[in-house]
Design goal:
Distance between the termini of chain B: 23 Å
Structural class of chain A: alpha/beta
Order of helices and strands of chain B: HHHHEEEHHEEEE
Number of strands of chain A: 5
Oligomer: heterodimer
Radius of gyration of chain A: 13 Å
Structural class of chain B: alpha+beta
Largest sheet of chain B: 7 strands, antiparallel
Helix content of chain A: 40-55%
Strand order of the largest sheet of chain A: 2-1-3-4-5
C-alpha cells in the first residue's frame, strides 16, 4: 500500500498527536504526517509538500480553519485533496460554513477512532 | 480572576464565524431554556464523552478534590447568547496523568505539553457541553483556552445565573469541572 501523506493542522500539539494516533488506529499505514500549528503554517507546508489528506481544527489563533480552507482554494493549493475539519464546534451552521469553505468531512471533538476511520477512509477511497 | 479577556475572545469567535448565518439561526431567547441549559446531566455526559475518547473511565466523586501541591486550571470562555466559562481544575499529578493518557508520554512536571493537553480538555468540555443544548451550539462562541497553574487561587463570579461544580475521579486521581453562566439572553 502506498504511503498516505497527511497534514494535521491544530494549534494543540497534543491534539495533533491524538489525531495521528487515531489515523494509525484506523488502519492508515504507512502514514507520513506533516504538522502545522495554524492555518498560516499549514499553507506554508503545502507549498513544499504534496499530501493525500488534510485534517484541520477550526478555532485557532492567527488563521482559523475556515480561513485556511478559503486560502487553499484562493491559492490553488492541494487541489482535489480531501479536507476534514476536526473541531469542538458542532452546530449545523458551523458544518455548513465548513462545507461552503471547501471541507469534505467534519468530525466533532471528542471523537472515537471508529469515527475517524469511517469519515477518512471513505474520503480517501473517493479521492483515488 | 476575571473572565473579560476570555469572554471577549469568545464573543469575537462567535461573531467571526458567519454572523449572518448565526443571526438567522438565533433563537429569540435562551432564558426560556434555562432549565435545559443548567441540567447537571449534560455536564456528566460531556465529561464521560471527553474522557472516554482518551480511554479514561470517570465516575462522579463526592469530593473534595485534591489540589496539592499545585493546581492546574483550564478556562474556556463562552460568549454570545450565553456568557460565562467552562473550567477544568485538578492537581498537578492528575493533570500529568491525563496528559499521559492523551500523548502516551510520561511527565514529571507540568510542562508546556501538559498545559496544552489540559487546555484541550477544557476546549472539548466546553464545546461538547454547549453542543448538548439546542440553540446554544450555533449561538455561543468559545475562546481559545487559557491555562493557569499555581497555588491558593480562587475563582469568584458575582451573582452568576447558575453554576455547576462537579467532581469526578479516575484511577487514583480526581478533578473538578465547573460551568459558570453569568449572563444569558
Amino acid at each position: 500500500m502506498a504511503e498516505i501523506r497527511t497534514l494535521i493542522v491544530d494549534d494543540s500539539s497534543v491534539m495533533r498527536k491524538i489525531v495521528e494516533r487515531s489515523l494509525r488506529q484506523a488502519g492508515l499505514d504507512p502514514l507520513v504526517v506533516y504538522e502545522a500549528n495554524s492555518g498560516i503554517e499549514g499553507l506554508e507546508v503545502l507549498k513544499s509538500k504534496q499530501v493525500d489528506l488534510i485534517l484541520s481544527d477550526i478555532n485557532m489563533p492567527s488563521m482559523d480553519g475556515l480561513e485556511f480552507l478559503r486560502q487553499l482554494k484562493a491559492q490553488n493549493l492541494a487541489p482535489g485533496v480531501p479536507v476534514v475539519m476536526i473541531t469542538t464546534e458542532s452546530s449545523e451552521e458551523h458544518v455548513k460554513q465548513a462545507i461552503l469553505a471547501g471541507a469534505q468531512g467534519y468530525i466533532r471533538k471528542p471523537f472515537t477512532a471508529e469515527q475517524v476511520k469511517e469519515r477518512v477512509l471513505s474520503l480517501l477511497k473517493a479521492a483515488v | 480572576m476575571l473572565f473579560n479577556g476570555v469572554r471577549n475572545s469568545a464573543i469575537a469567535t462567535s461573531r467571526g464565524s458567519g454572523e449572518k448565518e448565526m443571526e438567522r439561526a438565533m433563537p429569540v431567547s435562551m432564558r426560556e431554556s434555562l432549565e435545559l441549559v443548567s441540567d447537571p446531566k449534560n455536564l456528566d455526559e460531556t465529561v464521560d464523552e471527553v474522557f472516554k475518547m482518551l480511554g479514561i473511565e470517570c465516575q462522579r466523586d463526592s469530593g473534595p478534590v485534591n489540589m496539592d501541591p499545585e493546581s492546574v486550571t483550564a478556562v474556556v470562555g463562552f460568549g454570545g447568547l450565553l456568557s460565562g466559562a467552562c473550567l477544568f481544575k485538578s492537581n498537578s499529578a492528575a493533570a500529568m496523568k491525563i496528559a499521559a493518557y492523551m500523548t502516551g508520554m510520561e511527565f514529571e512536571e507540568v510542562d508546556d505539553t501538559v498545559k496544552d493537553g489540559i487546555g484541550e480538555i477544557g476546549n472539548m468540555l466546553a464545546g461538547a457541553w454547549k453542543g448538548k443544548v439546542p440553540g446554544l451550539a450555533a449561538n455561543c462562541g468559545l475562546s481559545i483556552p487559557a491555562v493557569i497553574t499555581g497555588r491558593d487561587y480562587n475563582l469568584h463570579v458575582q451573582a452568576p445565573e447558575f453554576k455547576l461544580v462537579h467532581a469526578y475521579k479516575f484511577d487514583d486521581c480526581n478533578f473538578e469541572v465547573t460551568i459558570i453562566c453569568d449572563g444569558i439572553q
